[in-house]
Design brief:
By secondary structure, the protein is mainly β. Helices cover 5% and strands 46% of the residues. The strands form ten sheets. It has a four-stranded antiparallel sheet with strand order 4-5-6-7, with no helix packed on it. The longest helix has 12 residues. The radius of gyration is 23 Å and the shape is flat.
């Protein structure tokens, strides 16, 4: 949900965090050791390096005292907090009041559609807790993920399917992994092996299903992102290193000009290692809407996506493309976040700091440094 009165976190020369608004005026002066982004009108902060977390409002005033060793952002009017290490996680509302009698082993996900995945110390399986702090769906799943668009992926007997809010399977557990629904489609894995206790698979192929369980995009990709704004990133293999020296594409010519400006060469080892796979973007029919040109790619947000045009062990050059695949913000950043409320955080070697840019690529806030910045 878009915040129509957004505040953005920054740091001053003393590395204290404050917040500015969309008119680029400081609303909350720098005073916190760490400040998280605002969510539902509140932001988690702590004052000094050894202090506890609390929540402030958009005036910078503490509305929930700083008394937590860990906490999460507010979602659906609820937050997870931990008062002491070794204790159980609990749920609070926006007044700081503890909700419900249960204490949980770990808050696996934030609240979404009024429910959150949780596990207690006594029960080894996962279930869904409601906003009242009680079990809405009892802990009977090996693994579970958040509700989105009315369904949630869960694992039983080693396979993933999707349940509704009543706990009924709407899509049978047939898959080796499953992600939450986004833009009407969910990514599923076939043939992968669990990589860890969290169940994320190694290997296999990824495709997409709709809410009836029908396969819309056949599982054929080795890496992916969820659909967002109509596009999903996918990784495709390149059987041989691309050799377009005779007639290089405009995009390749641009890449080479960037590399030349940085004093980098395009040696064959780097080309072989980097061009074995490339990222592109598919639409919801499975058509490759933006060709696989990128070493790295992030999801679209507010019409733009961060992509890397070159990367080796110690160099990453990122810029932003539009939905036509055009590089609208030149590739010159070491790291680049997605756009939120019209701004994105980026870093560059030139400044060695974090700074904000707008959708034209213009720097709109002076560079700053903070090791703990939630980038």
């Amino acid at each position: 949900m878009k915040d129509y009165d957004p505040l953005f976190v920054f740091s001053d020369k003393t590395e204290k965090c404050g917040y500015f608004n969309k008119e680029f005026r400081i609303v909350i002066p720098p005073q916190f050791f760490v400040g998280d982004p605002f969510s539902e009108g509140l932001a988690a902060v702590h004052r000094e390096s050894e202090s506890l977390w609390g929540y402030i409002d958009k005036k910078g005033e503490f509305v929930i005292p700083d008394e937590f060793v860990e906490c999460s952002p507010f979602c659906d009017g609820r937050s997870w907090v931990l008062r002491k290490y070794g204790g159980g996680w609990e749920i609070i509302d926006k007044t700081g009041r503890t909700v419900g009698p249960l204490r949980f082993r770990y808050p696996f996900r934030n609240f979404s559609e009024g429910l959150a995945v949780a596990k207690t110390e006594q029960q080894g399986k996962e279930g869904f807790v409601g906003r009242d702090g009680n079990w809405a769906l009892p802990p009977e799943y090996e693994r579970a993920d958040s509700f989105a668009e009315g369904l949630a992926p869960v694992r039983v007997r080693g396979k993933w399917g999707f349940i509704d809010r009543n706990g009924e399977f709407r899509i049978s557990p047939l898959y080796d992994y499953a992600r939450c629904f986004s833009d009407g489609l969910a990514c599923v894995n076939i043939g992968g092996r669990p990589l860890s206790s969290f169940g994320y698979p190694k290997g296999g192929r990824w495709g997409f299903v709709d809410q009836t369980g029908k396969i819309i995009i056949e599982p054929c990709y080795s890496d992916f992102s969820d659909f967002h704004e109509g596009y999903a990133k996918v990784r495709v293999p390149v059987s041989e290193p691309k050799r377009d020296d005779v007639n290089p594409s405009p995009f390749r010519r641009f890449c080479r000009s960037v590399l030349a400006g940085l004093g980098l060469t395009d040696d064959s080892y780097r080309r072989r290692s980097l061009e074995r796979y490339r990222y592109g973007y598919i639409d919801k029919t499975g058509r490759m809407a933006i060709g696989p040109e990128f070493c790295r790619a992030e999801r679209f947000s507010e019409g733009l996506a961060a992509v890397s045009v070159y990367e080796d062990w110690d160099t990453s050059i990122m810029g932003y493309i539009n939905r036509a695949g055009e590089l609208t913000i030149p590739a010159k950043y070491e790291t680049a976040s997605e756009f939120r409320n019209g701004l994105a955080k980026v870093t560059s070697e030139k400044y060695n700091y974090i700074f904000y840019i707008d959708k034209t690529g213009k720097m709109v806030w002076p560079p700053y440094y903070n090791f703990y910045d939630n980038f």
